[in-house]
Design a protein that fits this description.
The chain is built from 18 helices and no strands. The protein starts with a helix and ends in a 6-residue tail after the last helix.
Length: 424
């Protein structure tokens, strides 16, 4: 077997995730923490690296000839060992912290807050429908053509279109927090599929207009995060509470839709043959693998570290050079984005990046556990935001993760100011 360290990384992630769900060493605590989703996402990524690099799924010439996968798999295993050590240290420091749900936290408050903020979803839907109708009027209901239209036209949007997209992007952050509230309410009151479908249809037009699959993840990821977190708290309060079997359908829905939309993007017919062919793409996270291969292959013999420039989105000279070479060879809109690894590697080097990852993920886990001490609705949303940040590290650059967290936190502050969350 090739690149066995990918398999070791997968096993490590699975063991840690199981320990979380069994709440080992977490007496009277929720099993849903940032480390939970970090383990799940990087476990999937590691499994994908192992399966593809051994040509067990998705046989491609690229993976058959990739020279750097062994180095990448070893480096990733080192990162995961360091990150999980940081998570465990945060657990050890806060081992005496137990979940303390405030008296104000309950069904009535969450329902009231969601209803007060529903206008955000309606506004987001209105802008999304304008954008979707504009695109469909040019491309028709051809999802492949919609994606091509976005790729071809994004460099010369009109002033009006650019601002519509900008406004829609910011509204999306507010809408995501609305979805988090919906997930919390659903965990407490039970799953009503018609309601979830209705909110999903209101949420998706804006991102669907770009012809990608982001609208699926943008809705279901925060919904599932908030549902699991709230459910795990509810179990602490009510030991007899059972998870709704309909939740399995909620979990399966985005996976099915991701496969179907990918078939439509490739302009192929949906049938059992194409579904079977594209279903293996659930393992095709690639992220750091493809990008790091090209990155390490393009590095000059000597180069200066960025010391934070890349993580802040400024970009060091060597990183910008690599990105320019990447854009010449590949269509940046049709390939997966890098993980958190490349920018941190070029900022702090191999050893420095391990120190960076240890500090950052220790702070994330420690903050999430601290929020359990006074579990208000606002603190729960902060935990959800931290969970999303760790989830994104396998499919977004370090700068994109940082930007998403900052924008999300500002949105949380504004959201809290606009509702009674500021007192909860």
């Amino acid at each position: 077997m090739e690149n066995i360290d990918f398999l070791y990384s997968f096993i490590l992630c699975v063991v840690f995730a199981i320990a979380n769900f069994l709440k080992l060493g977490m007496r009277n605590k929720t099993y849903v923490l940032p480390s939970t989703f970090f383990a799940l996402m990087w476990g999937l990524t590691s499994l994908g690296g192992f399966l593809y690099s051994n040509l067990l799924v998705g046989v491609t010439d690229y993976y058959n000839g990739a020279d750097y996968l062994q180095e990448i798999s070893s480096y990733q295993l080192m990162i995961l060992i360091v990150v999980f050590s940081a998570f465990l240290l945060a657990r050890f420091k806060r081992k005496k912290v137990a979940v303390e749900v405030t008296a104000n936290f309950g069904n009535a408050d969450i329902v009231s807050i969601r209803r007060k903020m529903r206008w955000v979803l309606y506004l987001f839907f209105a802008i999304g429908m304008y954008r979707l109708v504009s695109v469909v009027s040019v491309t028709g209901w051809d999802y492949s053509a919609m994606r091509s239209y976005y790729i071809d036209s994004r460099s010369h949007f009109s002033f009006f279109d650019s601002n519509v997209i900008r406004i829609g992007s910011y509204l999306c952050q507010f809408a995501v927090f609305y979805i988090c509230i919906l997930g919390m309410e659903t965990a407490l009151q039970g799953i009503r599929l018609k309601k979830i479908i209705r909110e999903f249809l209101l949420f998706i037009p804006f991102q669907m207009s770009f012809g990608g699959r982001l609208f699926i993840l943008s809705f279901f990821v925060p919904f599932i995060f908030s549902y699991l977190l709230t459910y795990s708290i509810a179990v602490i309060r009510d030991k007899d509470k059972k998870i709704d079997r309909k939740f399995l359908l909620v979990l399966a829905s985005p996976i099915i839709m991701l496969v179907v939309v990918q078939i439509l993007k490739m302009n192929e017919t949906i049938n059992m043959k194409t579904i079977e062919a594209y279903s293996s793409e659930i393992f095709y996270t690639s992220t750091s693998y493809i990008h790091m291969n090209e990155l390490w292959g393009s590095l000059p013999p000597e180069y200066s570290l960025g010391y934070g420039l890349n993580c802040l989105g400024i970009g060091s000279s060597v990183y910008n050079h690599i990105i320019e070479m990447w854009n010449v060879v590949y269509n940046p809109a049709s390939v997966c984005v890098p993980s958190m690894i490349p920018q941190v590697f070029l900022d702090f080097g191999k050893c420095g990046s391990l120190v960076f990852f240890f500090i950052v993920f220790y702070m994330i886990e420690e903050k999430a556990i601290a929020c359990l001490k006074n579990l208000t609705t606002r603190n729960m949303l902060l935990i959800i935001l931290l969970c999303q940040t760790t989830y994104q590290t396998a499919s977004s650059s370090a700068f994109d993760c940082l930007r998403a967290f900052i924008v999300g936190y500002i949105t949380l502050v504004l959201f809290a100011h606009m509702t009674q969350l500021k007192s909860l």
